[in-house]
Amino acid sequence: MNRVRLLPEHVANQIAAGEVVERPASVVKELVENSLDAEAQRITVAIKGGGRSVIRVTDDGFGMSRDDALLALERHATSKIANAEDLAKISSLGFRGEAVPSIASVSRFTLVTRERGTLSGTRIEIAGGRITGVTEEGTAEGTVVEVRNLFFNLPARRKFLRSESTETAHIEHIVTLCALAHPHVAFRFVVDERERFHLAPARSLADRIRELYGHELLGQLVPVAAEMIDGFIGKPGISRSDRSQQLVFVNGRPVESKGINYALREGYHTALMRGQFPVTFLFLTVDPALVDVNIHPAKREVRFRDEFAVRQAVVDAVRSALAPKGVLQPLRTAVPAPSAPEPEPAAAPTTGSFALQSEFAPAAEIQTELEGRWKILGVIGQLYVLAESPEGLVLLDQHAAHERVLFEKMLHDLAGDAAPSQKLLLPVTLELDARDAEFLRSNLKTLLKLGIGVSEFGDKTFLVDAVPPYFRLENLAQTFRKIVDELRQTGEEVHARRLAEDKIATTVCRHAVKARDPLRGEELTALLAQLHRCELPYTCPHGRPTMIQISYGELEKKFRRVV
Q1: Digit-coded pLDDT (tens) for 381-403
Q2: What are the E-state strand segments in 370-477?
Q3: Percentages of the chain per state (helix, strand, coil), in multiples of 5
Q4: In this structure, are residues 369 and 335 in contact, taking their beta carbons and an 8 Å threshold?
Q5: How many CA atoms lie within 13 A of 483 on its CB side?
Q6: Burial, 383: exposed, middle or buried (Cβ in 10 Å; 0-12, 13-18, 19+)?
Q7: Is 325-336+351-563 the same fold as 9-199?
Q8: Residue 493's pLDDT is what?
Q9: What mean pLDDT comes out for the span 440-451?
Q10: Contact 167, 24 (CB under 8 A)
Q11: Secondary structure in 3-state letters for 139-182
């Protein structure tokens, strides 16, 4: 008895639809991408019942002839690739030739299209994958696809759909992503015959972000501009508790990439609190031959030929964008000329084992200058320093500020040719498996650069005889196993900055000035000056803000001096 049989075509289409069409938002994604591939300049998405009842996508693209429209309803029929070699350099959003027949197989589907330069168009009606009518119709140039009663012939799948509001939110997210990826295209989104938004072609990505998310969010972003990367990312401290606003696009396609997610976290370094995710609108332009988008039916994931190079490029671009530019620069102090010989300056007091040292001589009154004048006004709550800047009022957290100063000092020491290191009285023996041993053996120079003395003591055994002064000596074996894991994940270039971050941050927190630690005027001035010289002065090593700035404009609004 034969057990193997061919499935009917309509059943095969429904199975394929299960991979491509997960929910109404999947339909919208595929249809809008087809419109964009057709060079549409105006796209309207209208839905009813959360996309269950009606999804209608209208565009002014180049349309299709009657023959092309009929052929497009066949599985694996596409105009976007011609042979296997084309799969290695995909530049279009769609290419599989599965979406339209898959959608048509699980809905009541209508396609109306007119090719540019022709006198009339074509109307094709399909129910559950079967063509029920093909007629000639007068219509505007472009294409209209209407999908009704989605999953009407798959009740089990229809039951798994969420509420109308949830499905609508997913659809709006998809339309928003497409609008961000193509700001030059006009988008209109209509829900239950009520317009949600109508976006005219934007002059820039910034304009499109302002239209979709508001002026306030745009003001909290900084531009990213690198060789293959551009867009906007949140300033230090601007984050979310999930990745809902961590948007990444590769060649105009919204994607998910664990490597890029890791690179974003790495690029923010200590400017992001643990458990928080950056707000990003990041666009990567990569040679299509160097990126594989053919690894997921819904084309959500991508794989890069040189994953590490892309990750490093993202890290560098993010760090460059977050670096202070013209707002905080090294401070100068104006010291009044003394009328009498100055007394011998007192030694700067210390907190823990660190001194608040300054290159500036103490004086009766010291004002710091930065494109104008910064002036310390006082301290409230025995923690928050009030200062006046050229832009307005600044509240400085003395503990967080000192943490940042000490943290970067330790990082600077690590980055030098001879990182601080202390010898162990008794070396620690470390036994690893073959893979970890080989990996550690190839990274001994990296460890030595960071003040960690490791030497081979056999095929899979190593001796640790020196560590940086901030390492805790308990359970060093487990610490080094974690180091091996981190090295493998990040590679030497990125790892050199992050290897000891947790330990440095913990040490800094212990030694930094605390709340209620009284500081004298010259100590506060020195702290402010040292903070201004930091690479990333806006946050402490844990990602908390070091300062809050309130502009004169904001103060005038608070006091209703301006509307």
Answers
A1: 888 889 888 888 989 999 889 88
A2: 375-380, 384-389, 392-397, 422-431, 453-456, 461-467
A3: 35, 25, 40
A4: no
A5: 28
A6: middle
A7: no
A8: 46
A9: 76
A10: yes
A11: CCCEEEEEEECCCCCCHHHHHCCCCHHHHHHHHHHHHHHHHHHC
* Residue 90 DSSP symbol: -
Domain ranges of the chain: 9-199, 205-322, 325-336+351-563
Q: Per-residue pLDDT averaged across 203-217, rounded?
A: 92
Q: Which ranges of 188-279 would DSSP assign to H, the alpha helix?
A: 205-213, 215-219, 258-268
How many other CB atoms sit within 10 Å of the CB of residue 542? 17
Quickly count: other Cβ atoms within 10 Å of residue 363's Cβ.
Answer: 18
Written as six digits, the tokens of 398 are 């003395």
Residue 9 CA to residue 3 CA, distance in Å, equals 18
Angstrom distance (rounded) from CA 382 to CA 379: 6
237 Cβ partners below 8 Å, 6+ apart? Answer: 271, 538, 539, 543, 544, 545
Question: What confidence tens digit (pLDDT) does each residue in 148-164 have?
Answer: 999 998 888 888 899 99
- CA dist 40 → 34, 182, 354, 391 (Å): 9, 11, 63, 45
Which superfamily does 9-199 belong to?
Answer: Histidine kinase-like ATPase, C-terminal domain (3.30.565.10)
Domain 325-336+351-563 has CATH 3.40.50.300: no
pLDDT tens figures, 35-51? 999 999 999 999 999 99
pLDDT at 338 exceeding the cut of 60: no
CA distances from 429 to 54, 382, 483 (A): 68, 47, 15
Tell me the mean pLDDT in the region 271-282.
85
- Between CA 474 and CA 471 the distance in angstroms is 9
Are 189 and 172 within 8 A, CB to CB? Answer: yes
Q: What is the pLDDT of residues 260-276, one digit of tens each?
A: 988 898 888 777 777 78
Torsion-angle region of residue 33: left (phi > 0), alpha (psi -120 to 50) or beta?
Answer: alpha
Residue 260, amino acid: I
B/e letters for 271-282, b = 16+ CB within 10 Å, e = fewer, are bbbeebbbbbbb
Q: Which stretch of 9-18, 28-37, 46-55, 412-421 has the lowest confidence by average pLDDT?
A: 9-18
pLDDT in tens, 86-138: 555 565 675 556 788 889 999 999 999 999 999 999 999 999 889 999 999 99
CB count, 10 Å around CB of 562? 8
Among 184, 174, 218, residue whose Cα is nearest residue 22: 174
> How far apart, in whole angstroms, are the C-alpha atoms of residue 364 and residue 310?
53
Mean pLDDT value across residues 475-499: 62
Contact between residue 233 and residue 535 where contact means Cβ atoms under 8 Å apart: no
Q: Which helix (H) or strand (E) holds 108?
A: strand 108-114
Q: 205-322: which CATH topology?
A: Ribosomal Protein S5; domain 2 (3.30.230)
| Per-residue model confidence (pLDDT) at position 331 | 41
Could you tell me which residues are beta bridge partners of residue 153? Answer: none
